[in-house]
Design brief:
The chain contains 14 helices and 13 strands. With about 375 residues, the chain is of the alpha/beta class. α12 links the parallel β10 and β11.
């Protein structure tokens, strides 16, 4: 079953009655997908590889940057400019050449997530944005996979395991994505360099427990760490009958679009002055308001059609394809998400977002 070299390598596991040869064999046969080869993904990958997890999937589209090195401990200066999954796989093979490392140099999206997750038994989320977290949760619900989730912010971190043995999902704890104002800025938030290592190691621990069927998995519990005080808390939460049913086929696709990084991602927008010019033309665009009904009642642009963002995916057929459409909201965030959804997932090429929304469009 195990060669002499393997027995020597995994000796400390084999000595544990709770693991032994049967458990180590389960690790060898396990297939674990780690999404994100950054601050969280690096320690997760390092410990799972060392533990002998037989197949490790690495999903990340980014390249190594100099700013990554203080906290992404698989990489060195020579790796800067290279794909993270390739640099990480080289380091992991030096650590444990017995495992199979499957590289997915891609950004996980609604288009590829189902096929990707289906190849693995357990998913570990090491991403750094809310849309990916909701996307992975919904994919794991659709495919019946447990999700080991971790998140960090400045000096604090958290870990939980979702969709495990009938337990709560990510949406049971966080039913809706945060607004742009609530979400941390994707480009400017700092982090203590050791924090991802601490949180990632806990994620690796939970992933091993899931594979081995060992101990009390962090299902229905959110473990919180504050490194400045080094106090920890554990919050309990329950499965929500409605939220736990949301999956790739029933959730709002707009949840998979990043609001916190919208300004850098919007490629189809126009200014208030440009919209005024278009409205004065012989064939003006259709105005689509994606705010809520009460906001619409308080103020809306003349002739605008109300189609709230949460309803957009289900009612997309109401958006015409044969004439220009300008989507607006209060500040430009929701309209940007709507345009990204229409252009990216639904194939519209005739929609633009009003930059700055009504706040930049005086009445």
């Amino acid at each position: 079953m195990f060669s002499p070299a393997e027995r020597q390598r995994y000796r400390r596991h084999l000595q544990l009655a709770e693991i032994g040869e049967a458990g180590q064999l389960r690790l060898r046969q396990a297939r674990v997908l780690v999404v994100g080869a950054g601050g969280l993904g690096c320690p997760v990958l390092q410990y799972l590889a060392a533990a002998g997890v037989g197949t490790l999937g690495l999903a990340d589209a980014d390249k190594v940057e100099l700013t990554n090195l203080p906290r992404q401990i698989l990489y060195g200066p020579d790796d800067v400019g290279q794909l993270k999954v390739e640099a990480a796989a080289r380091a992991l093979r030096r650590l444990n050449e017995l495992n199979n490392y499957v590289l997915h140099p891609m950004r996980v999206s609604q288009a590829n997530v189902r096929e990707l997750v289906a190849q693995y038994d357990v998913v570990v989320d090491g991403s750094d944005n809310f849309p990916t977290r909701y996307l992975l949760n919904d994919a794991c619900v659709s495919l019946g996979r447990p999700l080991v989730s971790g998140a960090i912010y400045k000096f604090e971190g958290q870990v939980s395991v979702f969709n495990y043995a009938g337990g709560p999902t990510y949406r049971c704890l966080f039913p809706e994505p945060p607004s742009a104002a609530e979400a941390p800025d994707c480009n400017t938030t700092g982090v203590l360099n050791v924090l991802p290592g601490l949180i990632g190691t806990v994620q690796a621990t939970e992933a091993l427990k899931v594979v081995l069927g060992l101990g009390d998995v962090l299902s229905g519990r959110l473990w919180l760490l504050d490194t400045l005080s080094f106090q920890t808390r554990t919050l309990r939460f329950r499965r929500d009958a409605l939220q736990s049913q949301l999956n790739l086929d029933t959730a709002n696709p707009a949840d998979y679009i990043d609001a916190s990084c919208t300004p850098a991602q919007v490629v189809a927008c126009l200014s208030a002055s440009e919209l005024r010019q278009q409205l004065a033309a012989a064939e003006p665009p259709l105005l689509l308001d994606v705010r809520g009904p009460l906001e619409f009642q308080r103020r809306h642009l003349p002739g605008a059609v109300l189609l709230p963002l949460p309803e957009l995916a289900a009612r997309a057929a109401e958006v015409p394809r044969h004439r220009p459409v300008v989507v607006y909201c209060q500040s430009g965030v929701r309209s940007a998400k709507a345009v990204a959804l229409l252009r990216g997932e639904l194939g519209y090429d005739n929609v633009l977002s009003l930059r700055g929304g009504l706040e930049d469009y005086p009445g």
